[in-house]
């Protein structure tokens, strides 16, 4: 197996690879395409072993930690501090209202899932492709399955930590009341797991779009930012024009935010949704559909080396 730590040019990704143990790259003696190379338990074992490596690399990157891990928490604090003086948000006359922080918490949780999966992986994989990291990994016994298991596992680890931090700060510092029923937390669990998995696969698929690692941030961040504005994260979804709501409904973030609102907001707030209901069945259908789309596109477009390189 080739040594991935002796390249003449030092980059952030290279530094991360330099700390990788042998089992984080591949299994010595395993030949790609050979009888052992197709061993699925081996691929799963290597993929799981890479999760810790990828997670350490994530937290060693200050920009990734700020823009994907802490950003939703910072925005929740800003919205709460800036708009709390205007009073509670009420869905209609005689209905139960909630504080500004409580209203924006579901959107920030959904944004965190999108940032952890789509933005993080799209930029990270495109950067690794641009600086030659993927080319070097392609020369090792590491399979794409193991590589992506490590990436997706890292997204789940960081998304869980991020959501836990958001809920901890919301409940203790911002005084936001959290759900008390097992039914609400069960809904939270499946929306969260499905949303994170969908975001991760869509991020892998989107990583094929930037033509270089240097352009990855410029390509990915505007897409993610626009989706947040039209999907009810920063603006109240009910106040957006109908045509904008229809466009947002074509993408997964709108459904993740809607699912989270069903968990954290009183039932009266469902009248503000596009069809006056939480539509959790449609939330599941939309997220599963995007998960399949992300999986198929990732499978068709992933290359260790760009074809036009």
Can you lay out the helices and strands and say which pair or pack?
Layout: H1 12-18, H2 22-25, H3 40-59, H4 62-83, H5 100-130, H6 133-138, H7 144-172, H8 182-206, H9 216-230, H10 242-248, H11 252-264, H12 280-301
Membrane topology: Multi-pass membrane protein
Domain ABC transmembrane type-2: 63-308
Pfam family, one: ABC2_membrane_3
What structural keywords apply?
single chain, 309 residues, mainly alpha, 12 helices, disordered N terminus
Give a structural overview.
The protein has 309 residues and is mainly α. The protein has one domain (12-301). It has twelve helices and no strands. It has helices at residues 12-18, 22-25, 40-59, 62-83, 100-130, 133-138, 144-172, 182-206, 216-230, 242-248, 252-264, 280-301. The radius of gyration is 21 Å and the shape is elongated. The model is unreliable at 1-37 (pLDDT under 50).
User: What portion of the residues fall into strands of 2 or more residues?
Assistant: under 5%
Large-scale geometry:
elongated
Number of β-strand runs = 0
Question: Helical proportion?
Answer: 55-70%
- How is the main sheet built? none
**What structural class do the secondary elements suggest?**
mainly alpha
Task: Write a short abstract of this structure.
With 309 residues, the protein is mainly α. It has helices spanning 12-18, 22-25, 40-59, 62-83, 100-130, 133-138, 144-172, 182-206, 216-230, 242-248, 252-264, 280-301.
